[in-house]
Amino acid sequence: MWEPGVGTSAQDAAALRCARLLESADAARSSACATSSRVLALLCLLACPCVSAAEVLDRIAVTVDKQVIAESDVIRYLRVAAFLDRKPVDLSGAAKRTAAAALVDRYLMLEESDDSHITLPSVDATAALLQQVKAQYPSEAAYQAALREYHIGEQDLEKHLLAGMRALRFTDLRFRPEIQISDQELNVAYNKYAAEWRATHSGTPPSLEDNRADLEKLLTDQRASEALDEWLVTARQKRHVEYREAAFQ
């Protein structure tokens, strides 16, 4: 199941449904049609007492065909990323657009995984990563205080970590099996490595054979990343991706 960013709540989903009704009312040609649509939207709000006024104002940031990614998803992505990097949260328009693009890519990878029957990690797989994050803090209280400072919850962090793990797994299973590294590519990579080694060391650098496994992994990772980027370009072109400029002001 697609969870944009670090997850869209039921309240967000209800708010977005109502927002779409309001948008259709504004676009209606006749006042009677607009009035009817607005009444329907208000009934939607009344039927969802759990949706607060602030949540109703949540805007659509981007759509991928009929899939909606809300501005709140984009903001949560940026808050969790800043928390992990221990940097101030950047909510500028440029940062939000970059985050929205990353969420679009996540959706495309997840959908392709479903279509290709690729098994991705479940939330249980994030336990070790979550512990590594917690270990950076002197106590549980300090960790919880940091979460509050960034206005996120542990569930937001878990879903962000899970999305990263799924992207890596998708790349490994989808592209890595097709990659073959030639001896020529290994020699070029080794010559570069040896030159860099001599710049900071004296003597003879380790041999190609001693570094073959590491160089093969490095080159394979690079090729897999390039293959993913190329696939994403094509995948985006096949879909109708629309960014709502108002969300990136």
Q: What is the gist of this entry?
A:
This protein is mainly α and 249 residues long. 66% of the residues lie in helices and 5% in strands. A three-stranded antiparallel sheet has the order 2-1-3.
pLDDT < 50 runs, ≥5 residues = 5-56
Topology as a string of helices (H) and strands (E):
HHHEEHHHHHHHE
The overall pLDDT, averaged over residues, is: 83
Q: Report the sheet-strand fraction.
A: under 5%
**What is the overall shape?**
globular
Rg (CA only): 23 Å
Q: Major beta sheet, specifics?
A: 3 strands, antiparallel
User: How are the strands ordered across the major sheet?
Assistant: 2-1-3
- Count of individual helical segments: 10
Report how far the terminal alpha carbons are from each other. Answer: 30 Å
Helix content: 55-70%
Number of strands: 3
In quaternary terms, these chains amount to: single chain
**Helix vs. strand class:** mainly alpha
